[in-house]
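Thread: Newbie trying to understand structure tokens

Hi all, I'm a second-year student working on a class project, and my supervisor (Dr. K.) asked me to get a predicted structure for one chain before our next meeting. I've only ever worked with sequences, so writing a 3D structure as a token string is new to me. If someone could post the tokens and maybe explain what I'm looking at, I'd be very grateful. Here's the chain:
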Amino acid sequence: MLIDLDGNEIKYVPYQDQFDLRNRRLTPDEQHAIEEEINRRVDEQETDEGLIFCSSFIAGSDWSGTPFQRLYEICGEDEEVAKLFYGQWCWFTLMNRPDRFRFERIEHLGPDRICGLTYWRSDN
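---
Reply by user tm_fold:
Sure, no problem. This is what the structure looks like when written as tokens:
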């Protein structure tokens, strides 16, 4: 479940029309593989302190050989568009999990500016 900072459940993906249009080019097996891979990578972020992660960090920079490669292909091998499509998939996946996640755009400093959202599991 994805909730905003005020505690309201979110039941839509930003730019839903674009998300739906691109997803029509994915087979059900590809969609399932993408969702499973995101869930696997999210679950790997769990520590004794809880679960917090930046969507950009868990995807990595090389998608070849992963379910995310298909997102890149569907987006005409445009890296920026593929990153946005991947971000929509993260949102969609967390929105459909039973645990509650909050999110915020937090500026990450470093040699490359990170544009993803930071998500964390919330008990309330």
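A couple of things are worth pointing out once you decode it. The chain has one domain: 2-121. Strands lie at 2-3, 9-10, 52-54, 101-104, 118-121. Feel free to ask follow-ups in this thread.
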